[in-house]
Amino acid sequence: MTTQEMQAAFEQAYGHKAEKVFFSPGRVNLIGEHTDYNGGCVFPCALSFGAWLLIAKNEDNVLRFRSLNMPQVYEIAIDAIAPQPDRAWCNYSLGCIEIIARRHPEAKLESGYDLMYYGNVPAGAGLSSSAAMEVVTARAFTEEMAVSDRGGYPCGYTDEKAYRTELALIGQACEHEYAGVMCGIMDQFASAQGKKDHAIYLNCDTMEFEHVPVKLEGIKVVITNTHSPHHLDSGAYNDRVRQCKTAVEQISKVKPIKCLAELTPEDWKEVEGAITDPIAKKRARHVVGEVARTAAAVEALKKGEIAYFGELMTASHVSLRDDYEVTGKELDTLAEAAWQVEGVLGSRMTGGGFGGCTVSLVKDEAIEEFKAFVGKEYEEKTGLKADFYVAEIGDGVMRLA
Ligand code: GLA
Question: What is the pTM of this model?
């Protein structure tokens, strides 16, 4: 769908034109999974698909929510903003608006707004459609509610990077409070800070980051969708968050630490005995290994050692399968089939897990064979059809009009 078509749909729905158009992308994570809420590093890239938001003021003191993807429409008075029941999709948007006002005392919603969303991130694919929606809302409404009269960016930011980080934090707070998922910062950060043809090496403890060029001559990043909806509900995800916390508490009896990512693989040998809970121990072992793999993978990419990068991706999947237990039959079938194809450098699940997508590095000449073989194996073993997309790495959140 083009932005002109979205504008026409807005006008048809509301009877007047949109005043502004914004876009924020979904993401794919190359490596560094379930490390973000453990103070570790991640290495995601923003994609060229994401969420669009068109807005215009209204004179009725209400927020009207429509989406070109969802049938439900909502109307909420601007003085009655609170989480809506039954997992209403407008919560991802309402939450951001309320959180902007809470985090920035100068931010005010001075009128009602008509909103129209459109998203083209495959639904339930674990490519962060919700983060894209949160960040696009944070971008639009920081501008509407808190444009600094001191110049610079909304909310008084003079530095673009700091402003974009704040957009990610608003989105994350919304996910915690309005969706009940105690997620880390990776998805919203990638959506806010993405850069075309670069991955983001982010330290989730300090929020320091670096854009690293993804130069893969003759190799593509291929995303494969299980079409098995990822069940990143609060349940299994929040369990992992708690299990990691248990590991930190038990390790701290022998070595005080704030988060698991502080431990190197050498430290691990000394402290693992202190974890009495066997599940917490497996979870922690994944995190310590994954943090080390992520650092090694970034170095490998910088040096052009793509084969090694691919091996680390594959090792990441194995650890997520065996120790973190977030893969499941569909993701394992895709990854294990991919590993058998000549010309695949590495393949792993990406995102929260339990369904969703894998990400693979595939040589150009092997792409057709990859699709054919992985697609066939997957259908035989699961009865489902996989979808393949060659990832285009795009920019972070932006205003388009
Ligand atoms: C989800 C969360 C992220 C991150 C990943 C796993 O996408 O939203 O914060 O924890 O899972 O790496």
Answer: 0.97
